[in-house]
């Protein structure tokens, strides 16, 4: 009985109308109709996959082409250029190199001029590369973003494959639709950053572990490679390691013979061996990422490395990774100790609030998606034949979310991008509910998600759902990468040039771009007496949210006249 149940989970019968009917007998008109249906179905599913990913690609490429550098991007792009030219790990040691090597693939095509004599810090080196070295920042940023866009689309195929294996092709399409229309994934998948990459590699590892229940010898090492890629991209993936290794043990213990029967000859030693292989492969991938950049692993970091003590020091010393990785962990611990300032639902605070990420996800996730996440999670646990998949789909994001909720940096849902990835897969389980209304309700909610997402085009970064006022209201509740990450400096320049020519501009801008490069010649209103500030007062929404003292007084005594990209306010004084 147990063997038959496991077999039905590993090779589930498609649901939601996905299983074809019994073929009629050959020779008649019904047989020809059935044959035609089968032929059409062969290309309908691939066509739907292509269309969903194509619309996502259009949205991401449009955003990538129109947005100026966000706060983190010049750091990663500048570091990638240094990797290519100097093979040095000097910059951005707090993040491992793999994600920046992905970005470097695009930077290599752009072939920018790199000033080898420049000795600024990691923030300055990116701005110097973009604005002071004779390069075209629009072209360079687009090429740097394109590899991340391509990787984001590939992770969409992982979502589709994972859900299809659980539910069938229709379930795979539902999962892919939620992935492709996720405003957060479109927004951050179009940037030369690391968040989507790390989350996608964790998802890929979980999917390969699920497949490892069939062929552990093939899929567990591949899962280790994906886990290593996540660890070599962002250290925030570390909490997933024990979870994924336990899932590897579960897959090894549940592995089947080719005949479909559970292999009772699995011994703890053999399972431990497979887990060890997975762990070893992941460690090797991390080492390889560093060795690709600098085969000699020179100690050339230009960033100060704080000392850590107690349990943190023990954990760092136990990591089987290069010294550069461990130094990056020490820097991350130092950043965790910094008193960062947060903003949530109109309140500015210092430190972190444990409920920040759940609250931010509630604001920035489409309403239909929230309903489908809850329903899919419940179905994945409630439907008997799907329960073996629940640990692979639900436990990794739960652990990563719990870890992220204890971070000291309340900066945005980008720290929880694994949620729309994993829960898109979980949503497909709704189709396993044997109720006539389930497929219809799921389809209607997916359509609601699509409409909500398309309405925000091309301003995906400041998206919030209809219950919180849409993108125009996000700045009232959240800040930083949730709404205003410096992405609209170019759009601001166009707006000022077309609607407000020859006006006196006073600017408070949050971002890494250089306003004068885009033709914005402005002064800082905080550095002169308020009576001298006349004309247009332009303020990034994050600065508006946290305005105090002189800036708050200036805003209160000004009249709002315009906004740009739902991230920058324009006032008249």
Describe this structure in words.
This protein has 573 residues and is mainly alpha-helical. 56% of the residues lie in helices and 5% in strands. It has 22 helices and six strands. A four-stranded mixed beta sheet has the order 3-4-6-5. A two-stranded antiparallel ribbon has the order 1-2. β5 and β6 form a beta hairpin. The longest helix has 38 residues.
Q: Any descriptors?
A:
about 575 residues; mainly alpha; four-stranded mixed β-sheet; two-stranded antiparallel sheet; 22 helices; disordered N terminus
Helix/strand order: HHHHHHHHHHHHHHEEHHHHHHEEHHEE
Total of DSSP H or I helical runs spanning 4+ residues: 22
Distance between the termini: 77 Å
The residue fraction in helices comes out at: 55-70%
C-alpha Rg, in Å?
25 Å
Report strand order across the widest sheet. Answer: 3-4-6-5
Provide mean pLDDT, rounded: 91
Structural class: mainly alpha
Basic shape: globular
In what range is the share of β-strand residues? under 5%
In total, the number of strands is 6
pLDDT < 50 runs, ≥5 residues: 1-28
How many strands, what sense, and barrel or not for the largest sheet? 4 strands, mixed
